[in-house]
Specification:
Blueprint (H helix, E strand, L loop, with lengths): L3 E11 L3 E5 L5 E21 L3 E4 L14 H13 L4 E7 L10 H20 L7 H11 L3 H6 L3 E5 L3 E4 L7 E6 L6 H6 L15 E2 L2 E2 L5 H7 L2 H10 L6 E4 L6 E5 L2 H11 L4 E5 L10 E3 L7
Parallel strand pairs: 4-5
Antiparallel strand pairs: 1-3, 1-14, 2-3, 3-5, 3-6, 6-7, 8-12, 8-13, 9-10, 11-12
Length: 298
């Protein structure tokens, strides 16, 4: 009987994103309020004689590179830093769109680190890895990975790697609309100028004392005009609480008090765009699960 260890890797929603210039190394400085959603990838690990990577393929637009990805990169860096040479068969059930401004790759990396720490600590009782050391590893993988380790409502600053807890109500529903366009964060930033009109984004949209805006909106729209079309439709929904674009795009979001307001707009877009709606959720770092059964998606 095989033993499987699973973990959820939730999507990160940037409620706002302010680019505040660059540091002396030329890296952009950011401020952002984020929350994590019920939308999540799921990753399964099984001890094996060799490393193998498998993923669901019901939706080809969600397939990632099976040879080079942040899950494998996280495994390799963890293995290199700890000297723990266990091999795994890895299964990925991918649900977060790729290149969508929802932190899917970073979420997968963070979840992989959490799972590996759990398995390592179970075996090495005398030399356990601390959470603080896990954050050090996360910083090596990307600026969003530490926040994804936390997977709770946060305020991010610096390069995105400085985080502190925030409190947001759980009384709202979030609608995500992605026009099935992958945007490279690097490419969006290459179209951004701190001295441009992008800093004049309308900051009058308020959600729970948070100004909902995005400095990268104009850059993203120049690469994917459909973003502007989606936001224009969201803007005109009478009962919408707030709306905007997440991260570097291309996912747009609307926040609502009731699902009945969401259904007409989700039905309008569902035939041509990725649509999801649900609630935010705060996750525990102790979210690794053990099972003798693998979901029958692989």
């Amino acid at each position: 009987m095989n033993n499987y260890y699973s973990i959820t890797a939730p999507a990160k929603l940037n409620l706002n994103l302010l680019v505040q210039g660059k540091d002396n190394k030329g890296l952009h400085l950011l401020n952002s309020d984020v929350c994590f959603l019920e939308l999540a990838d799921k990753i399964y690990f099984e001890f094996s004689e060799n490393d193998t990577f498998l993923q669901t393929n019901t939706n080809k637009s969600l397939l990632i590179n099976s040879k080079i990805n942040l899950i494998l990169e996280s495994l390799y860096i963890f293995r290199n830093l700890t000297g723990w040479n266990k091999k795994f068969k890895i299964y990925l059930d991918k649900n977060i769109p790729i290149g969508a401004g929802l932190g899917g790759g970073s979420a997968d990396a963070a979840a992989t680190l959490i799972l590996l720490r759990k398995l390592f600590n179970n075996e090495r009782k005398s030399r356990k890895i601390s959470i603080s050391y896990l954050y050090e590893i996360a910083n090596k993988l990307g600026s969003d990975v530490p926040a994804c380790l936390e997977s709770k409502s946060l305020k991010m600053s610096g390069h995105g790697n400085k985080i502190r807890r925030n409190v947001l109500s759980n009384n709202y529903y979030y609608l995500l609309i992605n026009p099935n366009i992958k945007l490279s964060t690097k490419k969006v930033f290459s179209h951004f100028s701190c001295s441009s009109n992008e800093q004049k984004v309308d900051k009058k949209i308020i959600f729970e004392n948070i100004s909902v805006y995005n400095s990268l909106l104009s850059s993203a729209v120049s690469l994917a005009p459909q973003i502007n079309d989606i936001l224009s439709i969201l803007k005109n929904i009478p009962d919408i609480v707030a709306y905007g674009m997440s991260g570097s795009g291309s996912t747009c979001f609307g926040i609502f008090k009731e699902t009945k307001t969401i259904l007409p707009i989700s039905n309008y877009f569902k035939n041509k765009y990725f649509i999801w709606y649900g609630k935010k959720k705060d996750y525990s770092v102790n979210r690794v699960r053990f099972s003798k059964m693998l979901e029958n998606k692989f």
